[in-house]
Amino acid sequence: MKNLIKISLLLGLVVSLNVNAESGDKLDRQLCSICHGIGGNTTSEQFPMLAGQNAIYFTNQMKAFREKSRANLNATRFMWGISSRLTDEEIDKLAAYYEAQTPVHSGKITDKARYDQGKALFTTGDQSRGILACAACHGEKAQGNASIPRLGGQHEEYLKKQLKVFYGNDRPAAAAMHEIVKALTDKDVEALAQYLQAQ
Ligand code: HEC
Ligand code: HEC
After folding, report:
1. Which of these, 60, 27, 192, 9, lies nearest to 117 by C-alpha position?
2. Are 115 and 106 in contact (CB under 8 A)?
3. Cβ partners under 8 Å of residue 162, min gap 6
4. pLDDT of residue 19
């Protein structure tokens, strides 16, 4: 009996040591950085930046991948498998870790006219076409807040892809965005992505 107690205490210690060892930093290096870059700073247009992303938004997305509710094609291909291996505690650690990283923005203005059009839409919207100012929710600096994502410095290709995803229902948690994109033309999407990637 005594031995059993000793063994279970020891096991408890090993398990808790293990959990502590898997810091956000380590999980990033082991599981995520190969695609998202070290600390969530990636220069590849294929993968979204995670550095500086709001922890609540991040956590919501990881859980949406894990429960398979965020179901756009690239989410199913790249994020369903890996998220299913993470516990709530690991997701929390990763969320705190990425939120604390400083985003290294690689975006540059490549089309000034388009950039200006994107800036106007983002900051003031377009009442005549029923387009809300994105800044009202995403913040003047596109930094987001809590469950609203940071968009500033995000990759152009990724932004364009997600705005198109919102026309359908593959991100059911994004009901607000589903309504908003209905008023956007392809040109608006190009302009918004050009503006945001260079923030
Ligand atoms: C094999 C490449 C790959 C790996 C490994 C990977 N990801 Fe991803 N991740 C992607 C791609 C591609 C997307 C974009 C999915 C989409 O288009 O919806 C993505 C999207 C995300 C998003 C959503 C971002 C947003 O702005 O909504 C989060 C959060 C995320 N990944 C976190 C992680 C974490 C944490 C890990 C490690 C545990 C990880 N990813 C590992 C490729 C990867
Ligand atoms: C009413 C508030 C609101 C407004 C206005 C709004 N958004 Fe959003 N947006 C959200 C929320 C909330 C989410 C996160 C949804 C989720 O959890 O999946 C989001 C998500 C996004 C994403 C996905 C980011 C990622 O990392 O995957 C993009 C891109 C985006 N919004 C762009 C815009 C643009 C461009 C505009 C203006 C045309 C806009 N939003 C206006 C609330 C808003």
Report:
1. 192
2. no
3. 72, 171
4. 47
Atom of ligand 1 nearest to the CA of 91: 35
| 154, 51 contact by CB (below 8 A) | no
For the chain, residues with pLDDT lower than 70 are 1-21
Q: Which residues of 13-35 are buried (b: 16+ CB within 10 A; e: fewer)?
A: eeeeeeeeebebbebbeebbbee
Interval between CA 81 and ligand 2 midpoint (Å): 25
Burial class of 128 by CB neighbour count within 10 A (0 to 12, 13 to 18, 19+): exposed
CA of 173 to the centre of ligand 2 (A): 11
Position 22 scores a pLDDT of: 77
**Between the CA atoms of 72, 74, 78 and 84, what dihedral angle is there, to the nearest 10 degrees?**
0
Q: How far is the CA of 5 from the centre of ligand 1 (A)?
A: 42
Q: What's the 134 CA to ligand 1 centre distance in angstroms?
A: 24
* Ligand 1 lined by 31 (C-beta under 6 Å): yes
Q: What tokens does 86 get? A: 């993470």
Task: Report the pocket of ligand 2 as residue ranges, CB < 6 Å.
Answer: 48, 60, 131-132, 134, 136-138, 147-149, 151, 159, 162-163, 171, 173-174, 176-177, 180, 192
